[in-house]
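Postdoc handover notes: sequence design on the structure in folder B. Input tokens:
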């Protein structure tokens, strides 16, 4: 059986043709919930400030910017994590908060992430990006998507939507990932999240294979000419 990483690469996501602007925001009619735990980021200044979701959250005072070598005691979303985010992390989030590394995916290899050495480093499971830069691409989430996914999985679903609602495209992240986010949020621990992730990816691949086989096999133009 192929590894999860190989499987993710083989999953095709159908993107819509809608254009989204990261500078627009939507208003929520409900009274907004205020997190009673810190939400923070390390900003490595690699992204376009006009398109960076982390910078926008900072301007809205919804996230605290940490110094590059500053330690964070809570859950840290980082490629160096050894566990996957799960509902079991709720206590860490509620007592110590969430932090994310805000850097460019194109420059991830040159970012000194390992120097952060978080106590609770975590990886996010398979999710599909809805941000305008990486729309439809598996796992290439923006800062706000990563934070929202963690909030959703650990039980803070309303707060997750509030953060996404600051972006005109934010609702699309929940729409694209609704089923799998619900599955992850009902898991017990990191291992069960990974098991559900693997099952989901395999099912997606099977459905795509069936869809390909169901398409009519029309003759090519050269075949038509030869007749």
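Designed sequence:
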């Amino acid at each position: 059986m192929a590894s999860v990483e190989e499987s993710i690469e083989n999953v095709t996501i159908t993107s819509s043709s809608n254009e989204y602007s990261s500078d627009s925001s939507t208003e929520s009619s409900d009274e907004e919930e205020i997190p009673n735990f810190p939400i923070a980021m390390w900003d490595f200044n690699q992204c376009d400030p006009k398109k960076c979701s982390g910078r926008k959250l900072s301007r809205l005072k919804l996230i605290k910017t940490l110094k590059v070598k500053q330690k964070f005691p809570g859950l840290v979303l980082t490629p160096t994590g050894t566990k996957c985010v799960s509902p079991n992390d709720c206590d860490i989030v509620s007592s110590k908060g969430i932090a994310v590394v805000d850097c460019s995916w194109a420059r991830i290899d040159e970012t000194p992430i390992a120097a952060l050495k978080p106590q609770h480093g975590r990886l996010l499971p398979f999710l599909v990006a809805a941000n305008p830069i990486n729309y439809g691409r598996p796992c290439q989430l923006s800062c706000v998507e990563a934070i929202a996914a963690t909030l959703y999985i650990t039980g803070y679903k309303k707060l997750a939507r509030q953060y996404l609602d600051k972006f005109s495209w934010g609702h699309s992240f929940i729409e694209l990932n609704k089923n799998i986010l619900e599955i992850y949020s009902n898991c017990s621990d990191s291992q069960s999240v990974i098991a559900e992730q693997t099952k989901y990816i395999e099912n997606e691949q099977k459905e795509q294979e069936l869809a390909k086989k169901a398409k009519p096999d029309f003759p090519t133009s050269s075949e038509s000419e030869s007749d």
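Context for whoever picks this up: The longest strand covers residues 39-43. Don't rerun without checking with the PI first.
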